[in-house]
């Protein structure tokens, strides 16, 4: 026996290279994360997203349960306290009719956020449906939808809202809160859907060229199945970013229309209504404007920050 063979018997067989074992969770191989999983993991590490999310959650809780934050009636009037400043009894003071400004700001959160949410939902539903169909079918249908959307894009938002809401208000004999809110939501949605349509159309045109869509079409899948099962999940990201930012913008749009006297109005309580009621007393009682305007600015800023964080997380180029 040679020295080489003897040394091999002593040292044993050569070591076998270790195989890389995939990461496991609970003893099972961990599934690769998709776009939404990576986006959520990225969002959790962004302070901007955390701050915006906390503010929005608090505002949603206030809108859902305003009675937890104040026991005062937002419609109760006491003219002896007209335009009194902030105090321990009323943290935000009283308005021109002696109503508690803090209670009205708390209860106004519900109307302002409901208008923003419903208007965003209506805008995305109308624009997203037309956009994904136009992007998939193309041809004359795409041209027709594009030219039709350009009519609304060329119409100034405020002017269009004035025409629509003035017509609605002239037909309303007895104003009611649900009907007033419905009119404002419809006006914002009708005038804003072309932007969502264009975003969804661009995403649909890109998705239509992908191999999975071509494979589904080759296997005989119909247009509804391809649009709903294959294209829609991959076209939602840009529309979601737009919807998040637009929600804050629609809350601001409601305040603008209410300030002009054509949006929400009594008996509805909203930040825009409070700002409109304070315009004649800004110098004598600035607290009537500062507090509802502060709620409005913080809310719009929170949704804009949330939209920016979501956009950065869903954009692969930002990583």
UniProtKB/TrEMBL annotation:
<feature type="transmembrane region" description="Helical">
    <location>
        <begin position="180"/>
        <end position="200"/>
    </location>
</feature>
<dbReference type="Pfam" id="PF12911">
    <property type="entry name" value="OppC_N"/>
</dbReference>
<comment type="similarity">
    <text>Belongs to the binding-protein-dependent transport system permease family.</text>
</comment>
<feature type="transmembrane region" description="Helical">
    <location>
        <begin position="113"/>
        <end position="139"/>
    </location>
</feature>
<feature type="compositionally biased region" description="Polar residues">
    <location>
        <begin position="1"/>
        <end position="10"/>
    </location>
</feature>
<feature type="transmembrane region" description="Helical">
    <location>
        <begin position="151"/>
        <end position="168"/>
    </location>
</feature>
<feature type="transmembrane region" description="Helical">
    <location>
        <begin position="239"/>
        <end position="264"/>
    </location>
</feature>
<dbReference type="InterPro" id="IPR025966">
    <property type="entry name" value="OppC_N"/>
</dbReference>
<keyword id="KW-1133">Transmembrane helix</keyword>
<dbReference type="GO" id="GO:0055085">
    <property type="term" value="P:transmembrane transport"/>
</dbReference>
<dbReference type="Pfam" id="PF00528">
    <property type="entry name" value="BPD_transp_1"/>
</dbReference>
<keyword id="KW-0472">Membrane</keyword>
<feature type="transmembrane region" description="Helical">
    <location>
        <begin position="284"/>
        <end position="310"/>
    </location>
</feature>
<feature type="domain" description="ABC transmembrane type-1">
    <location>
        <begin position="109"/>
        <end position="307"/>
    </location>
</feature>
<dbReference type="InterPro" id="IPR050366">
    <property type="entry name" value="BP-dependent_transpt_permease"/>
</dbReference>
<dbReference type="GO" id="GO:0005886">
    <property type="term" value="C:plasma membrane"/>
</dbReference>
<feature type="transmembrane region" description="Helical">
    <location>
        <begin position="48"/>
        <end position="69"/>
    </location>
</feature>
<keyword id="KW-1003">Cell membrane</keyword>
<dbReference type="InterPro" id="IPR035906">
    <property type="entry name" value="MetI-like_sf"/>
</dbReference>
<keyword id="KW-0813">Transport</keyword>
<keyword id="KW-0812">Transmembrane</keyword>
<feature type="region of interest" description="Disordered">
    <location>
        <begin position="1"/>
        <end position="33"/>
    </location>
</feature>
<protein>
    <submittedName>
        <fullName>ABC transporter permease</fullName>
    </submittedName>
</protein>
<dbReference type="InterPro" id="IPR000515">
    <property type="entry name" value="MetI-like"/>
</dbReference>
């Amino acid at each position: 026996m040679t020295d080489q063979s003897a040394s091999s018997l002593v040292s044993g067989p050569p070591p076998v290279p270790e195989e890389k074992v995939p990461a496991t969770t609970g003893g099972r191989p961990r599934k690769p994360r998709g776009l939404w999983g990576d986006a959520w993991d990225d969002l959790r590490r962004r302070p901007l997203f955390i701050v915006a999310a906390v503010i929005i959650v608090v505002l949603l809780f206030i809108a859902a349960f305003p009675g937890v934050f104040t026991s005062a009636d937002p419609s109760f009037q006491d003219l002896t306290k007209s335009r009194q400043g902030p105090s321990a009894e009323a943290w935000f003071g009283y308005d021109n009719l002696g109503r508690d400004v803090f209670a009205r700001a708390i209860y106004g959160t519900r109307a302002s956020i409901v208008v923003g949410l419903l208007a965003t939902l209506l805008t995305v539903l109308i624009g997203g449906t037309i956009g994904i169909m136009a992007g998939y079918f193309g041809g004359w249908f795409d041209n027709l939808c594009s030219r039709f959307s350009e009519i609304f894009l060329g119409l100034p938002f405020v002017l269009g809202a004035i025409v629509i809401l003035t017509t609605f208000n002239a037909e309303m004999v007895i104003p009611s809160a649900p009907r007033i809110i419905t009119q404002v939501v419809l006006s914002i949605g009708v005038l804003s859907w072309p932007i969502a349509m264009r975003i969804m159309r661009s995403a649909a045109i890109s998705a239509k060229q992908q191999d999975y869509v071509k494979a589904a079409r080759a296997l005989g899948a119909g247009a509804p199945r391809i649009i709903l099962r294959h294209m829609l999940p991959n076209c939602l990201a840009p529309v979601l970013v737009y919807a998040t930012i637009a929600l804050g913008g629609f809350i601001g749009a409601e305040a603008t229309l209410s300030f002009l006297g054509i949006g929400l109005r009594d008996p509805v309580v909203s930040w825009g209504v409070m700002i409109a009621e304070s315009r004649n007393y800004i110098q004598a009682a600035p607290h009537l404007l500062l507090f509802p305007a502060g709620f409005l600015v913080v809310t719009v800023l929170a949704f804009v920050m949330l939209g920016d964080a979501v956009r950065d997380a869903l954009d692969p180029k930002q990583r």
